[in-house]
Design goal:
The complex is a heterodimer of chains A (473) and B (101). Chain A has 19 helices and six strands. With 473 residues, chain A is of the alpha/beta class. Chain A has a six-stranded parallel β-sheet. Chain A is globular, with a radius of gyration of 26 Å. Chain A starts with a helix and ends with a helix. With 101 residues, chain B is an all-alpha fold. Chain B has a domain of 64 residues. In chain B, 74% of the residues lie in helices and 0% in strands. The chains are: A alpha/beta (473), B mainly alpha (101).
Chain lengths: 473, 101
Amino acid sequence: MTTVATSFIHNLNFLHVLYIVAFALFIYGMTGLTGPRTAVRGNRIAAVGMAIAIVATLLLPGEREWLLIVIGIVIGTLVGVPAARKVRMTAMPQMVALFNGVGGGAVFLIAWAEFRRTGGYAHLATYVVVFSLFAAIVGSISFWGSNIAFGKLQELIPGRPITLGKSQQLVNLLLLAGAVLLAGLVAGGSHSEAEFIGMLVLAAILGNAVVLPIGGADMPVVISMLNAFTGLSAAATGVALNNPALIVAGMIVGASGTILTNLMAVAMNRSIPAIVAGGFGGTGVVEGASGAGAYATTVRSVSAADVAIQLAYARLVIVVPGYGMAVAQAQHAVAELAKALQKRGVEVRYAVHPVAGRMPGHMNVLLAEADVPYDQLKDMDDINPEFSRADVALVIGANDVTNPAAKTNPASPIYGMPILDVENAHQVVVIKRSMNPGFAGIENELYFRPNTAMLFGDAKGAVSDITGELSDI
Amino acid sequence: MLITNLTILVLAGFVGYAVISKIPNTLHTPLMSGTNAIHGIVLLGGLIVIALSGNGVFNKVLLVIAIAFGTINIVGGFLVTDRMLEMFKRKPQRPKDGEEE
């Protein structure tokens, strides 16, 4: 009787049913992410789907390398669990970049192993070869590109654009053409491993060449794009290996990455090719704190005590967080200030621009970490009409996303980018370290407006000072 | 086989697009780490290829690394997403005393 049971377990149709259950759970789990209350459950449902997919694969007839599988899984667990437990919320962009890269790495390694195992794709259907090669190229681009993105975010490599200038696009195009040409030779039946490795290397250089020229503020676009790449390469692996679970999961990730890439590009009013082609105005950024002196005559500088008084007697305060808040780890200080204000009956809202920070949703995660209730976090479209009834808009480490030049000055590089209508608030208080222009290297008109006051200092220190002053009022 | 796979690919792309479009901006970081976990499914690719014949020592090394990478994605991705989403779920509700949810 046991033979009946085992043959049933190893029956391919049964295993396919398990795959169907698995990807149904992925999709169902993702629908949970539409709201914060169902999201935790959704994520766990997707994890159950993953467990089922893994079990189904291990039951495939012919699996025998148990020791190697255990070694791989143990190593992965030993690396992944502590990383996930310890990573700070401010470091989430790095973490996601690294995870994108690791996925892309797995994809190109699998394609390489498949190439070697079959004697250079001998006796395989053409479509299998084509999808495997596609996966290898895109996986390699994603692996190297993501590692560079990680290095930039972790500040192991300079965050400013590193570029070849005008020839960059041509070089990228040649690298891509070279990789595709070698892939064509391999697909044509050359069985040459040198050509396969050459293709991987060109794709690797391309991955570096695409991400190195990208500046910090464009990171949300790049991370999303690499996320899409890894997903699509996983889906291609699924086609090559005839595995429906891989195809569906890969396409979900590909769709997600594509949607996010688009959202980010739209929120910056820039085309994806323009961003990939290299950062704008990156070389024009003035370094050093000397800027503060040059404009001191036209901007109004205030003390923490002044700001505390303004906030204490406000009805509605809108906090506008930016990357500066993340850098200064100021999210807890900001939440403290908000709590102190709410105790006094002041209404507090947070205005989150889609590209604030270094990845989609970055600010929201930081504020959630600091226990800010979800319903106080507002999207740009929801909060913009509210600024006109706000007594104070408190800008903490955000710059370009508040620049009115995006609406008024057609000559500005950020003209047309949707921004937060901060200048409509009765009073604007900007917490900033100095008068340095932001990433785009553009002066922010907001700072010179009569209703704007500047509080110079580190975001965390300045916010804590305000909270301190508030308790004395 | 190719046509079946392409059918699945295209349909999954549209389903993915429809589902992900509904996810609010606020949850986009957990969405990204969640999709990190899901593309860890490449682990299956490693498990499948390592079971096939013709793998030499070097291939086995490549595949063990791929399996480790996939596991990092799955384990790390789901855990970190869970951690993040728990932060969104918990509601302190201190500011408005007495009013629950």
